[in-house]
Amino acid sequence: MTLLRVLILLVLAVFSGGQTQAHALDPGYLEITPFGGDSYRVFFRLPDVQGQPMAIEARLPDTCKPPTGPTPNIDGRAWAKTWVAACDGGLAGQMITIDGLEDTQTDVLVRVTLDGTPTVTARLTASQASYVIPTDPGPWDVMASYFPLGVTHILEGIDHLLFVFALLLLIPDGWRLVGAITAFTAAHSLTMGAATLGVVTLPGPPVEAIIALSIMFVASELLKRREGQMLLSERYPWIVSFSFGLLHGFGFAGALQEIGLPQGDVPLALLAFNLGVEAGQLMFVAATLSIGWVAGQMVPRFVEGMRTPGRLPATCAAYLIGGISAYWFLERIAAFA
Known about the structure:
The chain is built from ten helices and twelve strands. By secondary structure, it is an alpha+beta fold. The protein folds into two domains: 29-136, no CATH class; 156-336, no CATH class. α1 packs parallel to α10, α5 runs antiparallel to α10 and α8 (266-298) packs across α9. The longest helix has 33 residues, at 266-298. The radius of gyration is 22 Å and the shape is elongated.
């Protein structure tokens, strides 16, 4: 029963700590757009930390007057400021920096549009708090901007990863697992592209709630497994993964729409972001399988119990996944109901 107590404590930690830490770990957002001549409109959104703006500051080059903005105002969830900066010689080839970012655990999404050039996007982190605006952004700059954003999004999307993890537990057969992951990839690529291009649109909050519901469904399938018997979801897992992959694609599209796409390079940015999502997903699958193999060498009984229907480790894992996803489902329903 010790394992069960640990899992219960983990669930309680997720439920009690997830919301309290959300604001402090929200990303910042910096957008720079032309305002005429060598002037630019700057919008900077800072995360809220215990009722105060996070101690970070967007700083333009010294050729800009002013290089920093006024005191931010709260917008209900975060802090925001807007100002117009006159930059002698423009911003192409110049460096922008987020002061104080190196002392945080968050990141800042930077989106810059200059006259006559495609929009460029970058993600600044504690280890890389500065960004040099390219003078003539080309296809490689678009790929370099949106590919890592896709990787980051999937690796930070705990709900998407939990769904994939549940599939790994549900489908022990290698070829069926490959088929399920491929179907999930194909499905969310279709809906992400369609939603991003405006072909199909669905409201974000209900989609996020149904994504949590999809994880609950897979968790229930884990509980229904019986030794020597295959459920329909185990026999034809690609049906489940493809169906719910369509929904997860709308979630990916929502994130990409918040980031924005460069005019003139929409297909390339969409492809780069999608490739980043797939790369991050493959990294997660490879890491999970590697950890499972190592654990199998060290604690074979536990790993075997995870793979055997009806055994305590398998049952605890199913309840843990189902409990977390049920909490997300209720939380997301309450957010818009």
